[in-house]
Amino acid sequence: MEQKQIQLTIQNVSKKFRIDKGTLSVLEDISLEIEKGEFISIVGTSGCGKSTLLKMIIGLDPPTEGHIRIDGREVVKPAIDCGMVFQEARLFPWLTVRENIEFGITRPVSGGERERLVRQHIELVGLAGFEKALPKQLSGGMQQRVSIARALVNHPDILLLDEPFGALDALTRINMQNEVLKLWEHEKKTMVLVTHDIDEAVFLSDRIIVLSSRPGQIMDKIEVTLPRPRERSSDEFLKIRSKIFKYLMTNADESVNIDQYL
Amino acid sequence: MNTKNTNNRKKITDILLSVAAPVVIVVLWAFAASGGLVRTAILPAPKTVASTLWSLSESGKLWRDMSISILRVLRGFVCGAIGGTLIGSCMAFSKTVNRILGTMVSILRPIPMLAWIPILILWLGIGENSKTAVIFIGSFWPVLLNTIHGIQSTDPKLLEVARILEKKRSVLIWKVYLPSALPSIFTGLRLGISSAWTCVVGAEMIAATSGIGYMIHYARELAQPARVYAGVFCIGFVGILIDKGLLALQKRLLSWSYTE
Ligand SMILES: Nc1ncnc2c1ncn2[C@@H]1O[C@H](COP(=O)(O)OP(=O)(O)O)[C@@H](O)[C@H]1O
Ligand SMILES: [Mg+2]
Fold first, then answer.
1. Which bound ligand lies closest to the C-alpha atom of A164?
2. Nearest ligand (C-alpha, residue A166)
3. What is the ipTM of this complex?
4. Does A96 lie in the same domain as A48?
5. Is-contact A108 A146, C-beta < 8 A?
């Protein structure tokens, strides 16, 4: 029997921000264990604290209460064994595609190995031929692929993705989801994907964490056991999708635009 | 093909528009002078100015004065540019340095260049050093302020990317802060060199025995208005050349910062 190994532990984590009049409670009592190699999605309305949670996992911002541990060690600052892809590609505009990806390498590696790693990851995200292009010469989808390659080239054990396809059109988004799925099957990394696209979460994840809106609390953890690649129009798929949709709707602010979830 | 034609036509229109105003002014000026509307002792005809310019350059007098001024500008500007970027970087990267020098900057910066000239002559004498110092100060401020501004406005989102990749501070400085500040530093250099050019003429008018500023000043004393105008024209012309040259260089070196 396969041994399940917990890689990321989030234990009773709360986050409060100080704002001019008192405090804003953003996340409350979040507890979650993520296994090595698991694909986890976090869904919730915008402003419920999803990005804040990722920032705490990666060590950019400490939790107000509780503990976050990676492989048993408390997270206190960013470390290269945990990578992150942001909603915007965040490429360095003065570096070419090649140089941007190379910037992702922090470990000491020899020149030849560097060269090989960069080439391998350019091919992995399908950007061969664009090595010398500047970010401004690329489409949004291509830029996001460069930023994924930059996060992967360091070989992080955990990859955090913060609404990485939010800014892309529907078709490109579906393409990117397929690519991420291939990547995940190929590299077997632990992936934590934040999204407000329910379809995306059901299509990709082993488990979906549903957060309530302010303060963010875990409403449910939904296992998705459908075999991959998943059929987006299958009954089971649609059932899970509408379950999550109901959670979010009963919880949504009036101001939230329903279209976002359909 | 078609778009190329329209592009060309647009380019020609742009050029025509940008030279229209100077041409109109010269034409009006020529009419005013030939019609006797202005005294030639105040405003000589454009023809007279042009021929003076020609004879000055033929005799080599103009080039001698221009090259003296240009050398002065270069000397002062190089010092000002290096000083401005170095001190600006230190102030932007270190809060302590910023605190130490910040007050000095806000006290000294509003002092007009012309007010520095007598002080610098007192300190450094009437020779080349006081002129270099004036130009140094003139080019130092824009470079300093734009360097600080450029470094401080580095996108925090890019800094986050470098931080999660566990980059060292030296990598942050050389690979993130400075490249992102370069367009702003370059703007500072352009402002700095035009200010240096203004300063050299000012300094030469007040105390010098050579240079284009001196030439203009001396011509006025000898009541040779055509020479005054010829000199002023040269100052403007060289100023444009320098700025256009630097702009072209900036577009080439920092093409990433221009959206097409
Ligand atoms: N540094 C901060 N200071 C104050 N409030 C913050 C800060 N960062 C986030 N917030 C607030 O926390 C809430 C959650 O933000 P975020 O995690 O970005 O939401 P999400 O990613 O789920 O859309 C928002 O209301 C936001 O205004
Ligand atoms: Mg967010």
1. 2
2. 2
3. 0.86
4. no
5. no
Cβ atoms within 10 Å of A195's Cβ, excluding its own: 23
Which region holds residue A43: left if phi is over 0, alpha if psi is between -120 and 50, else beta?
Answer: beta
Domains of chain B: 60-257 (1.10.3720.10)
Whether the model pTM is above 0.95:
no
Under DSSP, is residue A24 helix (H, G, I), strand (E, B) or coil?
A: strand
Residues A161 and A172 in one domain: yes
Reduce the secondary structure of A26-94 to three states and give it as a string.
EEEEEEEEEECCCEEEEECCCCCCHHHHHHHHHCCCCCCEEEEEECCEECCCCCCCEEEECCCCCCCCC
Q: Render pLDDT for A63-72 as a digit per residue (tens, 0 to 9).
A: 999 999 999 8
- Give the 3-state secondary structure percentages of chain B, helix then strand then coil, rounded to 5: 85, 0, 15
- What's the token pair of residue A31? 């507890």
Domain end marker among A126, A155, A184: A155
Q: Are strands A73-74 and A6-18 parallel, antiparallel or unpaired?
A: unpaired
The domain that contains A169 carries what CATH number?
3.40.50.300
Residues of B with CB under 8 A from a CB of A: 157-158, 160-161, 163-167, 175-176, 179-180, 182, 254-257, 259-260
> Mind listing the pLDDT tens digit for each residue in B104-140?
999 999 998 888 988 999 999 888 899 999 999 999 9
Among the listed residues B147, B151, B128, the one whose alpha carbon sits nearest the alpha carbon of residue B139: B147
Q: Based on the domain organization, do A114 and A135 belong to the same domain?
A: yes
CA angle B188, B190, B192 (to 5 degrees): 65
Give the domain range for residue A226.
1-81+157-193+202-255
Using an 8 Å CB-CB cutoff, list chain B residues near A135: 256
For residue A58, give the nearest of B164, B179, B259 by CB distance. B164
d(CA A237, CA A228): 11
Tell me the one-letter amino acid at B9: R
Do the beta carbons of residue B175 and residue B167 sit within 8 Å? yes
Is residue A63, in this structure, part of any structural domain at all?
yes
The CA distance from A32 to A54, in Å, is 13
Tally the residues of chain A: 262
Q: What is the DSSP letter of A158?
A: E
- How far is the centre of ligand 2, averaged over its atoms, from the C-alpha of A116 (Å)? 34
In chain A, whose CA is at the least distance from the CA of B172?
Answer: A103
Kindly give the residue spans of alpha helices, DSSP state H, lying in B60-94: 61-93
CB contact under 8 A, B161 and A86: yes
